[in-house]
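Thread: "does anyone have the structure for this chain?"

Original post by V.I.:
We have the sequence but no experimental structure in hand. Need at least a predicted one for the grant figures.
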Amino acid sequence: MTLKSLALAAALVAAGTTTALTSVPAYAQAKEQFFPALVYRTGAYAPNGVPFANGYVDYLKYVNAKGGINGVKIVFEECETGYATDKGVECYERLKGKHGGATVFQPLSTGITFALTDKAPGDKIPLITAGYGRADSADGMEFKWNFPLMGTYWTAADVLVQHVTKIGGGIKGKKIALVYHDSPYGKEPITLLQERSKLDGFELMLLPVAHPGVEQKATWLQIRQSRPDYVFLWGWGVMNSAALKEAVATGYSRDKMYGVWWSGAEPDVEDVGAGAKGYHALAMQHSAEPNSKIVHDVLKEVYAKGNGTGPKEKVGQVLYMRGLISAMLGVEGVKRAQERFGKGKVMTAEQARWGYENLALDQKKLDALGFAGVMRPISTSCADHMGASWARIQTWDGAKWNITSDWYQADESIIKPLVKASAEKYAAEKKIPRRDPSDCQS
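Reply from O.Q.:
Generated one for you, tokens below.
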């Protein structure tokens, strides 16, 4: 080694030592819990990605404004994925080790979720996929690191079938068309719908729509020709409003259209105008909640102090609430972990995973957090990583979303065997042993 390279090496070591000496005590003193945020504020899906991201970040700011997680401040960093799987994986790799290590990732993409499901166990970082991702990951005995909290696309599809069966006086002999985004997201409900088609005796039409979903004329020509009794819309971003516009153009009644909970937000209907009136969509428990206590609290603690992330008038809209709830679930898992591993301490990702597996958000706790009338209780376990499968129907009246049904709960007698079979297949392919009950408290 030359003298020059030795000097350079010594300088690098000295620099590294200085960084280590200064950063470790600063981090310990700061007591920061890192929440990476995978977002898409640009591209074809930005109209839906932005409000979710705003709600997610605003809740983290709100928690900090209230003193953090039992005194532990939250630090967060956004990374733009553009809803692209490869970019999502890049963001994951870039952020997982920053700020002392990521607590949890929430990909907001089923495609990214599929990719990260293979990575999370090795890195020991949990994934929360509230209302999306792999339906079979509800089985915590096979998927230790995945948490599809509040529902999956199988529970969503099941509730929609229950609803149209109820309002239509039966479903046997009828026809349902699934208009879906041709991606892992859009394909996910097919297994459940095919199973219910066999059990309930209805015909299922599968109509994929290519990314980003603007061009749907051929799809709606098929619908006009076959006249299905109902259309289930599994769209995202511009695909949703494009579908509604095509329904208007072909004369298909919006009253016969039902979107999944990612196809039932303000950006999906506002551009369609009066043509969207009567369109239905699932509410993943919540709808737009501008009058909820948590929204009032966020406006007071974050927006009134000039720290709001997005437009004040959009606080409380459907996807804003979805992001806010997702952040709350992430925070409450850490809080639950602190009950076991030390109140007021920074939790590792492994400790946070225990918290997500032992969530116990009863109505009293949810009400105290400001979610009265917004959510129902969620309780997870080693075997159940979903925790709840309640949903309702909401309908667009031309100006706002209104809840128009009672509560539904997915039929576990149909879903559980499908989850078990799919989870076991995944585990066999990946050579992952099923968790032993003794692992449940680790």
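V.I.: this helps a lot. The longest strand covers residues 32-39.
O.Q.: and The chain has a mean pLDDT of 93.
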